[in-house]
UniProtKB/TrEMBL annotation:
Pathway annotation from the record: Cell wall biogenesis; peptidoglycan biosynthesis
UniProt keyword annotations, A-Z: Cell shape, Cell wall biogenesis/degradation, Glycosyltransferase, Hydrolase, Lipoprotein, Peptidoglycan synthesis, Transferase
Family: Belongs to the YkuD family.
Domain L,D-TPase catalytic: 65-202
InterPro entries: LD-transpeptidase (IPR050979), LD_TPept_cat_dom (IPR005490), Transpep_catalytic_dom (IPR038063)
Record-annotated active site: 162, 178
Name of the featured protein: Lipoprotein-anchoring transpeptidase ErfK/SrfK
Pfam family, one: YkuD
Statement: the UniProt record of this protein carries the keyword Glycosyltransferase: yes
Length: 204
């Protein structure tokens, strides 16, 4: 066997692993025609690889089922146990508009209605006042395909983990304080998270 052929064979498993990984991601982010509002596949070439959903090693003292939001890193982790977590890229709130500390998922909704908070209406009445009565779920709704509502002590904090119709905003700090995810990712997280699940939001 020649050296060049031996090198080719040694490199083949890595090449196949890379192809398999890309195939898996294409499947994870493919068309979702059975949604109430069908979703088209995500153009992966426009999403940085590190912002795509993947299972990673993650050592933590938090119990399985906990959601950890690492705001400075623009990452969200769903703790799976045994040193593993599902990692998602996220968009976060602008400085001064972010939640910090512990909360829990008080309720969940599919294709939720979006209603701007009083603070959002005050900050930008021209944009938000017309939606004071609520905007029904759909492709133009800023909460996207799913929402998980964060509570403390039985009270709604007005912060949400939700989808977005602006996938290019993932990795950015530009929202009104909520945690936004690609619709495909928030659908995946929604299926994993139960009402009552602990959420830990880390700030810088």
């Amino acid at each position: 066997m020649t050296i060049s052929r031996r090198g080719l064979l040694f490199g083949l498993p890595l090449f196949l692993a890379g192809c398999q990984s890309m195939q898996n991601q294409q499947a994870m982010y493919g068309d979702l025609p059975d949604e109430p509002h069908p979703l088209k596949k995500v153009p992966l070439e426009k999403i940085k690889p590190e912002l795509r959903r993947q299972e990673v090693a993650y050592e933590t003292s938090h119990a399985p089922g906990t959601v950890v939001v690492d705001t400075p890193a623009r990452r969200l982790y769903y703790i799976m146990g045994n040193g593993q977590a599902m990692r998602y890229g996220i968009g976060v709130g602008r400085a001064g508009l972010a939640l910090a500390g512990n909360a829990y998922v008080g309720r969940k909704a599919e294709w939720p209605t979006w209603t701007p908070t009083a603070n959002m209406i005050r900050r930008d009445p021209e944009k938000n006042l017309k939606y004071a009565g609520g905007l029904p779920g759909g492709p133009n709704n800023p909460l996207g395909a799913r929402a998980m509502y964060l509570y403390r002590g039985g009270n709604d904090t007005m912060f949400r983990i939700h989808g977005t119709n602006q996938p290019w905003s993932i990795g950015q700090a530009m929202s009104s304080g909520c945690v936004r995810m690609m619709n495909h990712d928030v659908i995946d997280l929604y299926a994993r998270v139960a009402v009552g699940s602990k959420v830990v939001v880390m700030q810088a």
